[in-house]
Amino acid sequence: MSERGVSHRRAECPVARTVDVIGDRWSLLIVRDVLDGIGRFSELQRSLGLAKNILATRLRDLVAQDILELVPAADGTAYQAYALTRKGRDLFAVMVALRQWGETYLFDEDEPHSVLLDNATQRPVKLHVTDAHDRPITADDAFVRKVPTS
User: Fold this and answer.
1) For residues 9 and 27, what is the distance between their CA atoms, to the nearest angstrom?
2) Residue 146 lies in a domain
3) What are 83's strand-pairing partners?
4) pLDDT tens digits, residue range 13-27?
5) How many CB atoms lie within 10 A of CB 107?
6) Is 62 a domain residue?
7) Domain with 60 in it: what CATH number?
8) At how many degrees (to 10) do helices 41-48 and 25-35 cross?
């Protein structure tokens, strides 16, 4: 549920429902960090600089939404770590889109920033929005068909 107590859980708009689940900045940054390989609570807390109680709440919500799951820590200790589920990994395109928007509008031309690279080619990852025939499209090429009102 959103921080203002308004839920869009039953909204007809997929964007509203998505924002209801991952729309706060901390949830998105947690997903970003887990995508980057940070999974232990203490590491997430250190990376985000977030109060433990808020982090615990966001992690609990992301697990409840099946975006994250608890798994044994990779180092073989008794600790557990957070890992993305398939549903969580499918947020990758959302994160790429946010990253590219930020690169375009929030950095000066020569300002350094992190770069998302393809493992195989070491080249920057680019997100392309296409139609059903894999033709690139923009916002001007698409529309939303609303649910008819009764």
Assistant:
1) 17
2) no
3) 69
4) 888 899 988 988 999
5) 11
6) yes
7) 1.10.10.10
8) 120
Inform me whether the pLDDT recorded for 46 exceeds 60. Answer: yes
Q: Whole-angstrom Cα distance, residue 26 to residue 47?
A: 11
Please, are residues 100 and 91 in contact by the beta-carbon 8 Å criterion? no
Given a cut of 80, is residue 10 above it in pLDDT?
no
Cβ of 62: how many Cβ atoms within 10 Å? 24
pLDDT of residue 75: 85
Reported for 25-33, long-range contacts at CB under 8 A and 24+ positions apart, including other chains, are 26/50, 26/54, 26/55, 26/58, 27/58, 27/61, 27/62, 28/95, 28/98, 30/55, 30/58, 30/59, 30/62, 30/68, 30/82, 31/62, 31/67, 31/84, 31/88, 31/91, 31/95, 32/95
| Radius of gyration in angstroms for the set of CA atoms belonging to the chain, rounded to a whole number | 18
CA distance 63 to 69: 5
